[in-house]
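Hey, I was hoping to borrow your eyes for a little while. I've dropped the whole record in just underneath, so have a look:

——
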Amino acid sequence: MEPKQHFRTVRSLDSAKDDRRTLLYDVVGARFFVTNVVDHNESYTLFDAWDHVQRHKVRLCLVSSLLTRRDPWMFYSLQRQCVVNARLDHPCIIRALPPTVRQGTLFFIEEYPHGSLLSCLIEKQRTDPHPSWVQCALKIIVSLCEVLQFAHRFTCHGFLHPREIYVQNAGDDEEVPIVRIGHFGLRATLQKVGKGLAGLTSDLTAYAAPEFLSGRALTPSADIYGLGALLYAMLTLQAPQGCFVRPSRLFPEIDASLDRILLKALEDDPAARYQSIEEFAEEVYPFCEARRPPRHGSAYPLRSERRGPLRKEHVRFRASVLAWILLVLINIALLVSILCVRFRAHHAKWSMVQDGHTHEELVEASMCSCTVEYFTPLRSKTPL
């Protein structure tokens, strides 16, 4: 897309008082060209963009400047959470670059997620049922448990819902579905100012834990509730709201023991739920054919295994930085050596002056030490 078209696209989104169109055109437009809008609400805007340097699609998330300018603490919290998310290095977590701030506006770049949205798969199952859907749902939950076990060492997601989970190989009976998830803790941070549910329908808000809706502090127990809500929606094909229906009553092929697991994970009291992802996973594993799935490769390799233009660019940048640092250190060493020579020369001169040497003797001593240019000629030939 040409820069002019990119500018018109962003300008048509925002009002005349919002400076996000100028920010995108000046900062991101030089490398990332917006193609379409994925999600737009009062808290953030999510774009599909094209990286013309690496030649692939990316996602651009732009946080509303109106939200961050009113609350500096919210700006700092979102920035800190984005930094944590950029450090999460797992094949099933959507990669994100560290956040960038320009003119008081926060935005970050993440890799383009491949696969189908989990919400689309659930809707497809309603219209075109798949015979092995129950096993596929259990495999998806098992993969999510593996991802959350890793992520809970650093942060918690806070609000799992099917519009932020991407699945690959969902219809293949022989393959374990590859799950991709991102945006850890972002909606949980926005919920502290009442913006965590922005842009979501009532069906999606049903996946939120009670402590998320009430604004209480979130723990990994909120993700356990989210896993239970996702499993409930995949088994019953209904949103987890109102009076929960036992999945075994709707579909006889579902084991009745899963009802107990779901009801315990969906308890309103966090203390009554499973106390860890490991405990919940051990309850679900026996019902899944693929008990412990191996780690799956993502659309992009890990940061430590990356190659290509971005990796080469980083190597060149680091090499140039090291070269400049080495040059500065060499100059500092030369400066220190010159100062040491000057100090010794002036010390020797002062010693000779104290001993009563004449001007000719001082000049001769200066020439012998190759520092004659540092001495001030004396006009008198008499002893000083």
Remarks:
- The chain has three domains: 3-111, 116-298, 309-374.
- Residues 309-355 form the longest helix (47 residues).
- The chain has a mean pLDDT of 78.
- Residues 116-298 form a domain with the Transferase(Phosphotransferase); domain 1 fold (CATH 1.10.510.10).
